[in-house]
Write a structure and sequence with these properties.
- This protein is mainly alpha-helical.
- The protein has one domain (2-90).
- The chain is 81% helix and 0% strand.
- It has seven helices and no strands.
Length: 126
Amino acid sequence: MLVALGLEAVFGWPEAIYRRIGHPVTWIGAAITGLEARMNRPGPLRTAAGGVVTVVVTTSVAAAAWVLTQLLPAGWLGMVLSGVLAAPFVAARSLHDHVAAVARRLAENDLVQARQEVAKIVGRKT
């Protein structure tokens, strides 16, 4: 985890890669959005459907992580590679950058732009 934190803090997720393929956290967000669109219906089963979405997404991500770690070699090399694979999922640098952009807009009293910056964090119109 220290490898992941260090790599993410130093490099973040390069903008060129983001433009080309997005970010793993946004992929998860897209999966949640798609499942929510299909499952979020009024009625008595709404809460249960939300639970199903939570379990499906969490289990899918955990299973993918488990499979990848099983494919890695044992020892130091495996730990380093595990950190490299985990780094994008930390997303702390990206979150910091987005929050800083909101803070800048608020400091400028530009609420319209601040709301647009917040929308980048929460993934929906604000």
